[in-house]
Each structure stands twice: as C-alpha cells, then as structure tokens.
Amino acid sequence: MFEKVLVANRGEIAIRILRALRELGIASVAIYSEADRSSRHVRQADEAYLIGPPAPGESYLKIDRIVDLAGRIGAEAIHPGYGFLAENAGFARACEDAGLVFIGPSSETIALVGDKMQARKTMVAAGIPVVPGGDRPLSSDDEIEAEADRIGFPVMLKAAAGGGGKGMRAIHSKDELAAAAKAARSEAGSAFADDRIYLEKLIENPRHVEFQIIADAHGNVVHLGERECSIQRRHQKLVEESPSTALTKSLRAKMGEAAVKAAKASGYVNAGTIEFLLDGNREFYFLEVNARLQVEHPVTELVTGIDLVREQLRVAAGEELSFGQLDVFHRGSAIECRICAEDPENNFYPSTGLIERLREPAGPGVRVESGIHAGFEVPIYYDPLVSKLLTWAPTREQAIERMKRALSEYNIEGIKTTIPFHKAVMESEAFRTGEFDTSYVDEVFFPMYAGREMPLPEVAAIAAALVRESEREEAKPLAVADAGATRGGWRQSPESRTWGGWQLHLK
Amino acid sequence: MKYQVEIADEKFELEVEETDGGTKVRMGDETKPADLVRIGRSPVYSLILGDKSFEVSVHRKDRIYQVVLEGSAYDARVMDERALKLVAAGGGEKELKGEIMNAPMPGIVVGIAVQVGDEVEPGQGVVTLEAMKMENELKCSAAGVVKAIKVEMGQGVTQGEELIVIE
Description:
heterodimer; A: alpha+beta; Rossmann fold; Dna Ligase, domain 1; D-amino Acid Aminotransferase, Chain A, domain 1; globular; B: Glycoprotein, Type 4 Pilin; CATH 2.40.50.100; 2 domains; 4-stranded antiparallel beta sheet; 1 helix; 16 strands
C-alpha cells in the first residue's frame, strides 16, 4: 500500500478522500488555491501546499505544478477526485510518465472512453446495446441530413468529445437541422477544442440509470448495482438513489452484466460508472463511461456497505479486489440530495458569501459529505456543490421520510441553498411513486415549484417581528412605549395573509 | 407595536402586544401567545407560538432579517409603525424603481452588452456575470436610456453592487 498520497481536489470530495487515507494510515497531502487557505480540506490533511491563485486554470488545473509537487514531496500516488483533472488523459499520462500512480483508469482508457464515438464503437464490438446512430463525424449539412433520414426523426446531435450537455441538441424536424448543427459545432469547439459532431436517435423521456463498476489490475471486474439519476435540472443531477424504481431483478442482472462487459472492453481498472438510458419499453442503451469516482458514489456505499475510495486505493496499489461479484449484497434504500449554493427562489443564481452558522443533520441513517464550515466564505470560483446529504433506510418510503427529516434539520445560514427545493422534490407525488424521467424536473416539477408558496412564511414573519421587538426592548421598556398604541384602525391590506392560511400550514 | 413584514412579494401585518399573561401576536383577527427565547448568545431562537414549537435562526443585515426555519431561508423586511408612517408621509424609504441595476449575486463581469446612451427595453440582457462556472445574463426591468456603466469587463462584484444606471 502507498505511504503518501496527494489529493488533487478541494471541497467535499477532497475531504472524503482524506478520510479514507486517514483510515488506511496513509499520509495525506492537500493542495489549495489562494481562495481555499481556510478551507476544511487543508486542515484535514497531514500536509498542505499552496498551488496558485483562485482561478482553477491557475491552480487546481495546473498539471505541471501538481505533478512536480507530488514528486518533490515524495507522494507515490495522486487521487484526482471528480471534476478538475479527473478525466484528463493528459494528466493521467503526466502522472504515469513521472512514475506516479494515478488513482483511476489508465490514460489510454480515459482517452478511449472520453471520445464518445470511439466509446460507441468499442461497445458495439462488445455486443452492448447503444443508441441507434452514426459512428462517424458529420461535416456537411447534406451529410447530416442524410444521416438523420437514415436514423429517423427525432434525433440528437452530440459532440464527439462531449459531456455535461455541451454541444447537445435535440432535433425534431428537418428544418431545424442546419441551425442546430452550427450551434452544436461552435459550442463543442469552444468547450472541448474539438468540433466533431455526430447523430444519434433521440430517446424521448428516458430514465438515466448508471452502474457502478470497480476493477483491479488482475482482471477482476465487479459491478455494485445501479444508481437512479433521472432527477435532473438542465442535464445536472440533483437527486440520486439506489435501487431504481424502474428496474426489475432480471433487468438489473442484464444491465449489470453489460456494465461489466463495457468495463472489460475498455480495459478499465479502478472505479468507474457506466451510464445507460432506459426508454419507456424498459430497453436500455449504453450512454457513456464516467472514468472517475462519481459525486453520487456514497449512494452505492450505503446500500452495499463497500468503501469505494478505500477499494480504489487498494486496486491502485496493485492489490486484488477484496470481494467478488457474489459477495456484493444490496440492502435497503439510499437517497442523495446535492446541496448547492444556489438560490432556488431567485432563478438558481449562485449564492456565495459567508456561512454564518451551520448545523448539520444527524441521527439514524443520515450521512453528510460536506466541504463547508461556519465562518467559511464560499468562493465564486468553483462548483456550487457545497455538500451532499444522504439517507439510508430499510425501505424507500422510510428513506424519503428520513430525508425530509434530515433536510429540515439542516441549517446553512448566511447563503441560500437548494435545501428547500429538495424538500419539495421529496414531497412531490412523482418522486414518491417513483414515476419520473429525465424531463420531470424541467417540464413538470420546476414550473410548479416556481409558482409555489414558501411553506411557513407567516411564522418567519412573526419571528422577524419578535426579534425586532426584542431589540427595541433592549433600548427601552416596551410596556410603556406601546401603551395606548395597540388600539384603533389597524386593517389588513387585501394582499396580506391571515391566520386562516397560516393555521393550515401548521396542521 | 404594529409591524409590516415583507417576505418575497407578500406583506404580513401583525401586532405584538405585551400583556400580564406574556407576549401576544395578533395577525388578522386572531391572537396567539408567543414566547421567543434566544439560545445563549447564538442567533438561534426557540419560538413557541400558540402550542406550536419552532426553532428559528435570525441574522440581521441592515433592515433585512434572514430567518432560517426548517431548512428554508426567508428574507424578511421588517417595518414598524413609525417607519411605515414615514413612508406614508413620503419621506422614508428611497425608491429606486429599477433605475439602478444591482448585482443579484457576486461574480465576475464577463459581458456588457450596452453602452452609455443606448436605449434599453425591459427584459433586455445587459450584463453577464460569471460565478461558480456558470454565466448568468442579467436583464433590465425598466425601459430607458443607459446613463452610466459602473463596472468593467473582468471586474469582480459583490452582491448588491451597482452595475448600470438607467434613466
């Protein structure tokens, strides 16, 4: 096993990895930007090094500086976390060239699965179902039109180097083609410096179901079951859970088998995720490989009891997986809510600033993966994800009730977060029944949410007035000040709320 | 003392009374006993309203009280009787009426789509701010002519900072 490992990340995922290192007795190294000097991950590591100015391009994305630092301080391996350099084949290669272990798949595998067209070809050859479509880049509008006719509308334009919804365009008819192709090409070009695009059949209202896999360097590949990730807003996952309400036992076995095949076909070693789309007829199609530890990995940890980061470190050090496929059991139901520093009442604008007070939920079946603390100034430079709240329970129903309870205990004060949004999701009929797809939040839930009333505004108004009153009281005795002022013509304006509505909320 | 509390677009009118039997709150034609106790020196309060128990945290920022209640944050603007009278008399609150665009969030200015002297319409995108890897186009709410641009490209702004003055 390693003696010293560098964590090339920040926030909650850096802390998650540092915890695993501590438990394994491995010396841990944090890197930080100038904006992160007082961040938790710096204090939770055995060593910490300033890597550059706040902008990621000047710090957390500086391959040379990070690799050079690791060599200088005697770290044997680098864990990239997710985001930043996690799926950067150039970074993995730089580690390999410097004699460092990159904790993740090889640079060849990252490059192979990072090219969506290459990945498709590999999966087709391995007999894994893929979304019907083309395996070649399309340059002229004529070519695109011919391809669209061949596949049949509606179609989806995609970037070969794609990811995160960039360069993706759904097209329902011929006259939309040219404009969409132009936009997709320019978006892909600026996002990935690669403007190759291709066409796939559009799977309408699919569910997004992914399988966690882990593989060692001795040829053992195991899948750890699925995560349901269909609760998304603008292609960004908000809530993940396992098991998925859409899978039967036999479908789960089939998809798991396909996931293991996909990992083997791409020469995958370490932890990874195989993403699938599931259509209305419960047919599944390979979507892509995420060559990293996922944000939502704790969902799988809760239902399987397996520590994925610990296992990543073990297989990266050349050890065999500590379990086989038959040792993996799924127990109960787990849900994750991504808590972001965004204001759901104000168009999900980022809400940065000082965390004045923080109280995290606890109690049975609750897990918090957080990167913030009271007194922390949330920087504007990085991902808005500040924490992940997970619950586990024997049944899905109980896990939802537990999540509602945990969300109501979670106080992040000083910034706005998506906690109220998650509470509304947990209460929605579609989530409770499990009948939803990837279009649900954007098309059904969000319009409803935007028009809803806050749950307890009357109580909040009273609390604010009482605090104001107590501040006055400190200045002078209230009874005297207000004597005689409490009678008379105080009338409700028509738009103001009354006790009647307020009592309803308290029931 | 009477209060008007604004949360989002809603106005709540209520009255806090001190009686021999403790504090009472009246809203509409109903009155309930209210007991607010601060927990030590923290911003946390225990509120017992009628027979219901709540935990609230309250942070004050100028005239805005941010109330955190069961995981939701409410920005409450509290005005007491005297402040309301001042407003009614026309002397109190400064009304901006959309003439000055403020930053709704902190960020870095990555786009300015107008110049001084340009005519703008409600809903027109004028400034783009980037924060947390996302670009957010800010639209003006009033029609008029751009009188001043108070920020530059690449500049970092804090929440509430003046961006553009429209007349």
